[in-house]
Design a protein that fits this description.
Elements lengths: L1 E2 L31 H10 L31 E2 L5 E2 L8 E2 L2 E2 L21 H14 L2 E3 L9 H4 L12 H11 L13 E3 L4 H6 L4 H19 L2 H5 L4 E5 L12 H6 L1 E4 L15 E2 L20 E6 L5 H10 L5 E4 L7 H6 L1 E7 L8 H7 L3 E5 L18 E3 L7 H10 L2 H12 L14 H11 L11
Parallel strand pairs: 1-15, 6-7, 7-8, 8-9, 9-10, 11-12, 11-13, 13-14, 14-15
Antiparallel strand pairs: 2-5, 3-4
């Protein structure tokens, strides 16, 4: 569900819209070119060369859904089945789903919030195909490498902390059937550096990350032919630390061309490109057995706890600090955090220093309906999951109306369906030591599959 204060919308368009497919019969160098430049070069090579633009996923008929979900005021496309409000004080009326480049339709339609997927059948069919065919080449590094700690998976104990997603992914991928040792059979190439590890390495540190990545891209582009074939369009990296926002400033070809799988996924973040890049959830590692509590026993309307490190959070705390129904905390809780999540109907994710935090993953794990207060957040797995049907997105300018919005949902009995849908998507927001079908690892792989190389190259030999 999306609740907005106004009717503004913003245009978000993929770098290009071609859907033709083809095979390279010749090699070209496109180092540092943007996507439009790549297409232009390819078109000049016709009929020998053509493009295969399937990276934009289901919105272009390929992947089981629609363009990625984005939070914020406006950007909705008519035809969806969600609740919106031109003004949160007004009577809610039905509009459309969030969509790149769309606008709101106020035409009333029957409400249907039962389905958590945009197109479940398409997703399931393509998921099977992905599982059988997707191949990833990981640039090799050995234990004797002086920077092995940066490139190799850390298998000493389980990943922990806010940035565990980065470590979990690298471990899971390295042990998966998706990996190929033959780079000429690869759909995608993984750049295995860890920004979180660089940050803690005294030889690099925060100040040296940009130069390290620049040198690394220079190295692989001269040692291997694969980067230069596409300018990095079929390469990707994974990062969950906020330092990653600026890590590519000395290697702009990475943020321009490569697929960035990141937690910091804001449409207004410099270097992040919708459709090309993908959002990964920030998930704190938790046991596989999830605690449950019936909605009738969730006595608190909403819950939030967090540091005061943004205007959004300051506004939230200032408005609701002393409210009896919305539990807002700006210091350590006296009771267990898990108990607060289990005892609340809604759990608030408010933008802090970044649009992303682990609170969405926490809410889903404990069966609490997420409330997203973070404008322009490209929500994780938005190509597949219909966030409108298991979360409530509220414009940051409507914080003052938050209680009214949530009470209306509870009073209209829509809360029960939303909460049930949260339970359905829990499996997608869980890491495992050994990946399980449809868990976070496989969902990230599916997002990559949707974005598999926009430029297909086959050896002329």
């Amino acid at each position: 569900m999306i609740y907005d204060h106004d009717d503004d919308h913003f245009d978000l368009k993929p770098p290009f819209d071609d859907q033709s497919s083809g095979i390279f019969n010749s090699s070209i160098s496109v180092v540092g070119l943007q996507y439009d430049d790549v297409v232009r070069v390819l078109q000049e090579q016709q009929p020998m060369v053509s493009t295969a633009v399937d990276m934009f996923g289901p919105s272009h008929g390929d992947g089981g859904g629609r363009s990625p979900e984005v939070t914020g005021s406006g950007s909705e496309k008519g035809g969806g089945e969600i609740l919106t409000a031109n003004n949160s004080r007004d009577v809610m009326h039905e509009g459309g789903q969030l969509s790149a480049g769309g606008s709101r339709s106020s035409k009333a339609k029957p409400l249907n919030i039962k389905e958590v997927y945009h197109e479940k059948d398409i997703f399931m069919d393509n998921y099977k195909q992905m599982n059988k065919s997707l191949k990833i080449y990981i640039y090799p590094h050995v234990k004797s490498d002086p920077f092995a700690n940066i490139f190799l998976p850390n298998t000493r104990g389980s990943p922990g902390g806010n940035y565990a997603s980065e470590s979990y992914f690298k471990i899971a991928l390295s042990m998966s059937h998706f990996v190929t040792q033959d780079p000429y059979k690869a759909d995608l190439f993984f750049l295995p550096f860890s920004i979180a590890s660089m940050r803690h390495d005294k030889r690099i540190g925060v100040g040296g990350i940009k130069s390290f990545i620049k040198d690394y891209i220079f190295s692989i582009s001269h040692e291997y032919p694969f980067w230069n074939r596409t300018g990095g369009a079929d390469h990707f990296y994974v990062a969950c630390h906020s330092v990653g926002r600026t890590a590519m400033e000395k290697a702009p070809e990475v943020s321009i061309n490569a697929i960035q799988v990141v937690c910091s996924s804001s449409y207004f973040l410099q270097g992040y490109t919708a459709h090309k890049d993908a959002s990964i959830p920030q998930i704190w590692p938790r046991p596989g057995i999830r605690p449950t509590r019936h909605p009738s026993k969730r006595q608190m309307l909403a819950f939030y706890a967090g540091a005061m490190n943004s205007r959004v959070r300051e506004s939230l705390v200032h408005t609701w600090l002393n409210d009896s129904d919305i539990g807002v905390h700006q210091s350590r809780l006296k009771t267990p955090y898990s108990e607060a999540l289990l005892g609340s109907k809604f759990c608030i994710h408010a933008k802090g220093f970044e649009v992303n935090t682990a609170r969405i993953g926490d809410a889903i794990y404990y069966g609490c309906v997420p409330v997203v207060l973070a404008d322009h957040y490209d929500l994780p797995f938005g190509d597949v999951l219909n966030w409108n049907n298991f979360a409530v997105v509220v414009s940051t300018q409507d914080i003052v109306f938050l209680k009214s919005i949530l009470n209306k949902i509870v009073e209209s009995n829509e809360y029960m369906q939303l909460q049930n849908n949260v339970l359905q998507v829990q499996k997608h927001f869980q890491w495992h030591q050994i990946p399980v079908d449809f868990d976070t690892f496989y969902m990230v792989m599916y997002e990559l599959w949707l974005r598999r190389s926009s430029v297909r190259i086959h050896s002329s030999s």
